[in-house]
Design a protein that fits this description.
About 30% of the residues lie in helices and about 20% in strands. The strands form nine sheets. Strands 9, 10, 11, 12, 13, 14, 15, 16, 17, 18 and 19 form an eleven-stranded antiparallel sheet that branches. A four-stranded antiparallel sheet has the order 5-6-7-8, with no helix packed on it. Helix 5 packs parallel to helix 7 and helix 7 packs parallel to helix 9. The longest helix is centred in the middle third of the chain and has 20 residues. About 55% of the residues are buried.
């Protein structure tokens, strides 16, 4: 295997993991769950790894396999999981058996803990404007409206009591298998009971040319065998649960509203809807060969569209067709075909279609450890993700998405340049004020935050990522708009004037600013890319001598202040001895040659001090926050790529499937 091929494999899998927002799911009902044993490893939407306190002591001991849904035939997603007990509806005693082994190869949905499903058990639905999280038990526990960074209508993943949800499940004990329909972001869940089998198909439908609702969630229920009694409950809680919900009917259709937000609950063959206690609910029986349809039609500051059944059914089918058509044009044929395909679809879910921005994640405030406070809102677009994103789009054969994202990036940064914000809103706005919500947080992990104060920080590495992104775009397109070129030159000038400042770094620490090594490396990269663009005639050469002079000064600072002679390794910050996995990014961007002994020394130091099996911690020093760090899955793939570039191809390729199995 060649170095270039190994690098490509590592990079592909890194992208697939870095943007993978898909987890597995569990249960919501009128009752709570009894947990038979400690929770296994939970993989979070932002790819942090969360632990119960006792689980963390055991490091990465797990009881479950990969936290992903696979395409193709519906299968058991987690082999060897014990049967859990759940309170039977209407029962006052915990421990009543409601799930049991029916011997059909599927499994009981994992128990909820005080109403919370295991994070690994969520799947993602999306329509290019927002993302919903669907638990294995059929409950939609997260849905911002109308956009991904808007307040939520359903937020039970962060507050089981006050967040709101859309539950749909059998009334009998059941087992569950599910999958994504091949090459789509449409989820198919099969509930098997002693009386029969029902199948639910879920999607946030993609808008068409005709008049359609602002946003639409469609759930189709089909009877595969026997007769299965089903129940459903729509419990909207607008504005993060702060707005009072009104329930009424218009033209016979039940609706919920608050202020300028409204949702129509349209059902066909799903029983008579009943409104009570801030919810709309119903029950029905699905028999072999029969179908029911439930659709939520949302509106925000505009008229509420009430669709016909045929329209909802047609949009659900068309949504699957359009996902498959999009994926057909993507280019990848290699060892990790399934992971790359699913990673591409997950990345597409994070693209905000109205602007072309790409969100870092679909959620807010999922914890790095249960009960901890490292809970952040990631529903914004980070500049440091830009080079990863553009590279992925170009490699996937998505020139339209790449161009839209680049121009969104240029639009967003023009209002603050030459100084850059670390993150921007999906509409390009620069402000994202951080505030806590009066929610208890996932399994009591408070605070729940919306907005992100990191938007106000100085993070010097973002300048390197912006120039790297411009370099990728320019080399792919062969041109730069003259106005964009002038702005990029001003950014390079700003780096020359600012690189000596301490900053918050890539990890956005809340401790005092430091001279982080990776920040300095990325300032070097920023000037390197500016010089390369100037050499191609895409930027003015007028300031090139100053850029080269400051680049040399940065290198001198790194080599004299950010290098440990004892470890022959670059360290986390100036005059420190602890290491930070982020320096791999500077090295992978080209600060040092893969053959350089210090590159090898840094890789070995990170493996020794930060790696635990296939997982890698980000750093080990103080960051001004209480609690402990979880591992960051993307770091495993940075390490794999670094190993490949250093010539350790066998170790690099072995690390990738091992990492996926966690």
């Amino acid at each position: 295997m060649t170095k270039s091929k190994a690098k490509a494999l590592c990079s592909w899998e890194g992208i697939a993991s870095y943007y993978n927002i898909v987890c597995k799911s569990s249960t919501l009902s009128n009752g709570t769950w009894y947990h038979a044993h400690p929770s296994p490893l939970a993989r979070l939407i932002k790819n942090h790894v969360a632990f119960d306190p006792e689980e963390r002591k055991r490091r990465f001991a797990t009881t479950c396999g990969p936290a992903t849904l696979r395409e193709g035939p519906a299968t058991d997603d987690c082999e060897g999981v014990e049967t859990h007990l759940r309170r039977s509806p209407g029962s006052s005693s915990e421990g009543s058996v409601i799930g049991s082994d029916l011997g059909n190869g599927s499994r009981v949905a994992a128990p909820r803990w005080q109403g919370y499903a295991p994070l690994r058990e969520y799947a993602a639905l999306g329509d290019g404007r927002t993302v919903a999280l669907l638990a294995r038990d059929g409950s939609v526990d997260w849905l911002p409206m109308p956009d991904l960074d808007s307040p939520t209508v359903f937020g039970a993943v962060l507050d089981a009591r006050r967040g709101g949800c859309f539950a749909l499940e059998p009334e009998l004990p059941y087992r569950v298998s599910r999958r994504y329909l091949p090459s789509t972001n449409v989820v198919e869940t099969t509930f098997t009971t002693a009386e029969g089998t029902a199948q639910v198909t879920d999607a946030l439908t993609l808008p068409g040319a005709a008049l359609t609702p602002t946003r639409e969630l469609v759930r189709k229920v089909e009877g595969l065998s026997g007769a299965v009694p089903m129940r459903w409950r729509v419990q909207p809680r607008f504005g993060y649960g702060a707005a009072g919900t009104r329930i009424n009917r218009r033209a016979g259709v039940p609706m919920a509203s608050a202020g300028t937000d409204a949702v129509a609950v349209c059902t066909w063959g799903a029983g008579e809807p009943v409104g009570a206690d801030g919810a709309i609910k119903g029950a029905f029986e699905i028999r072999l060969g029969s179908q029911a349809l439930l659709a939520l039609s949302f509106a925000h500051e505009e008229p509420l569209v009430v669709p016909a059944r045929s329209e909802c059914a047609a949009r659900l089918a068309e949504t699957g067709h359009r996902w498959r058509a999009w994926l057909r044009d993507r280019a990848y044929a290699g060892r990790w075909q399934e992971a790359v395909t699913r990673g591409a679809l997950a990345l597409k879910l994070l693209v905000f279609a109205p602007s072309g921005a790409v969100a870092a994640a679909a959620t807010s405030s999922l914890p790095e450890e249960i009960g901890g406070g490292r809970n952040w809102d990631y529903r914004f677009s980070w500049l440091r993700d830009s080079a990863f994103t553009l590279d992925a789009f170009l490699a996937l054969g998505c020139p339209g998405e790449a161009q839209a994202y680049f121009w969104w990036l240029m639009h967003a940064t023009q209002f603050t340049e030459p100084r850059l914000r670390p993150l921007y809103r999906l509409d390009g706005g620069a402000r994202a004020p951080e505030r806590p919500l009066a929610w208890e947080g996932y399994r009591g992990s408070a605070p729940v935050r919306v907005g992100n104060a990191a938007a106000e920080q100085l993070q010097l590495d973002t300048y390197g990522e912006l120039l790297q992104t411009a370099w990728l775009y320019a080399t792919a397109s062969g041109r730069l708009d003259p106005d964009i070129a002038r702005r990029l030159a001003r950014v390079a000038d700003f780096v020359c004037a600012s690189w000596r400042q301490p900053d918050a770094g890539i990890w956005e620490v809340r401790s005092p600013p430091q001279h982080f090594t990776q920040s300095k490396m990325m300032c070097w990269i920023a000037l390197d890319r500016a010089l390369r663009l100037a050499e191609r005639g895409l930027l003015s050469r007028r300031h090139a001598p100053a850029w080269r002079r400051e680049q040399d000064a940065i290198e001198d600072f790194i080599e004299t202040r950010c290098l440990s002679a004892n470890q022959n390794s670059y360290v986390r910050s100036a005059d420190a001895e602890d290491v930070d996995v982020s320096v791999l990014l500077g090295l992978l961007r080209g600060y040092a040659s893969p053959q350089h002994p210090r590159m090898h020394g840094t890789v070995e130091a990170i493996r020794r001090d930060l790696a635990h099996g296939p997982f890698v911690y980000r750093y080990s020093g103080d960051d001004g926050l209480q609690g402990t760090e979880g591992a960051f899955v993307a770091c495993s793939f940075w390490l794999a790529e670094a190993l490949a570039r250093c010539g350790h191809l066998k170790e690099a390729t072995e690390l990738i499937p091992t990492g996926r199995a966690g």
